[in-house]
Records
---
Amino acid sequence: MKVSEYIKAKDLNEAYELLREDRKNYIIAGGAWLKLSVKSANKLVSLDALGLDKIVVLGDSIEIGALCTLGQIETNELIKQLYDGILVQAVSSIMGVNIRNIATIGGCVMGKFSFSDIFPVLEVMDTTLVFHKQGEVSLMDFLNNPKFEKDILVKIKIKNNLGKGFFKKVAITALDFSVINIACSKTDGLFSLSVGSTPYIASPCYKAMDYINCLSDINLESIKECANKVVEEIKFSSNNRASKEYREELAKVYISRGIKQVSNYEN
Ligand SMILES: Cc1cc2nc3c(=O)[nH]c(=O)nc-3n(C[C@H](O)[C@H](O)[C@H](O)COP(=O)(O)OP(=O)(O)OC[C@H]3O[C@@H](n4cnc5c(N)ncnc54)[C@H](O)[C@@H]3O)c2cc1C
């Protein structure tokens, strides 16, 4: 990667102005993806001096600074408790310790990667993104807006909830991108379901959630019906990793297992 200038921003305003000044100026976090995807940059703007690498509890949320590495998240005792540790499970499934000690949660979110193992998990937890200029933005508003204005992600906020959680990544080899990934949660009696890497970016399964959350009780039939609804509403396709049909079968199997696990269903 060719870079004309490297600037360590003194504050968020400076970083924001530099980012907006030229389309060839980039924020650099871990740089793991940026260095692979961008051939040349005018200015690389580092946020290293801005203290965005902390994980703290504030009010009823856990706040994760955008510069926290996946390694920091993986070893954080609070995050291990959150929804049965599904964020830790998702993060631990990404590459090896060396990459996880470089790659940041901010880079994962801002990359909007279709293969992301983080998004399904963030989608089934109560997650808000906090930007420098635009302030608090819901995760889904960010993901669904292809014209989201250039901004600096400062932190992500997750409701500190001890709800139940399930995460599954299916990949051909341990270090590969997902063939599919699935997250489920249950909080205050309500299920939340998300499927990603289909190979499209993760999406909540709204119709399946509406269905299962209206039932007074679940049984094997209703779990099967819910899994079928997931396959009906989510778009699956084939690529060099897996066929559409294989992804659909995996989604049915792991959505069913996820629902059973988060509801302690035994049968
Ligand atoms: C070889 C390899 C394999 C991977 N495999 C997986 C995988 O299996 N599953 C998975 O989920 N992920 C995977 N990833 C992605 C990885 O987890 C990180 O998401 C990725 O490396 C980006 O993190 P980073 O900190 O290096 O960001 P960078 O590369 O520094 O930045 C990525 C993008 O985000 C922007 N950005 C970064 N931080 C901010 C901020 N605070 N505000 C605004 N913009 C910002 C940058 O300008 C850039 O456009 C892989 C990455 C690599 C390199």
---
Amino acid sequence: MPFIRETILTTAGSDGTVHIAPLGIIEDGEGWIIAPFHPSRTLENLRETGVAVANYTDEAKIFAGCLTGRRDWPLVAVEGCAVPRLEAALAHDVLAVVRVEEDTTRPRFHCRVAASGQHRPFQGMNRAKAAVLEAAILVSRLHMLPAAKIEDEIAYLKIAVDKTAGPDEQQAFYWLLEKVIEHLAILEDAADGA
Ligand SMILES: Cc1cc2nc3c(=O)[nH]c(=O)nc-3n(C[C@H](O)[C@H](O)[C@H](O)COP(=O)(O)O)c2cc1C
């Protein structure tokens, strides 16, 4: 399996509207592959402008926020690039699309690193941040998973949050939990109606 780095991608459409979304970028030699599933604003923006900024951040609230309708995070201009980076980025890479492998489900945008920046020190690993990242991925896949699997995973991830979270990670996990509870209620209603 290739190495995947979980990032917040910033992209922009041809009208300059910026879009923020979590995506895992796939290591590809010196470059990275961005692989968005259809339909996706990120995908459309990559086609329109051919550039993305990969923001490397450990802010759990940004990952959880993007999955729960909170996409308005502070941005900072990147010199020589039409797409801004997250203010919260510890570091970033500007990714320029060099080739697209077309696919009806999940095209692959092969990118080279056109520029990079370092902004803040990394403060170390934290289990709650990692648990929020996993919970965010879970929320992005709710429609594919049975209720029992969702309940088991959330119960397990909650242990790390309860033991090691600060207020930001607690808030982030709560946003995701709300989404999970809403989804499980819909599944339950559907089962009751069947
Ligand atoms: C950590 C993480 C990694 C993700 N990686 C991908 C990915 O590689 N491809 C993808 O299509 N969606 C991925 N998702 C889900 C997207 O963030 C989500 O579907 C997003 O809204 C993409 O659609 P958009 O470009 O229209 O915003 C990921 C979510 C998380 C939390």
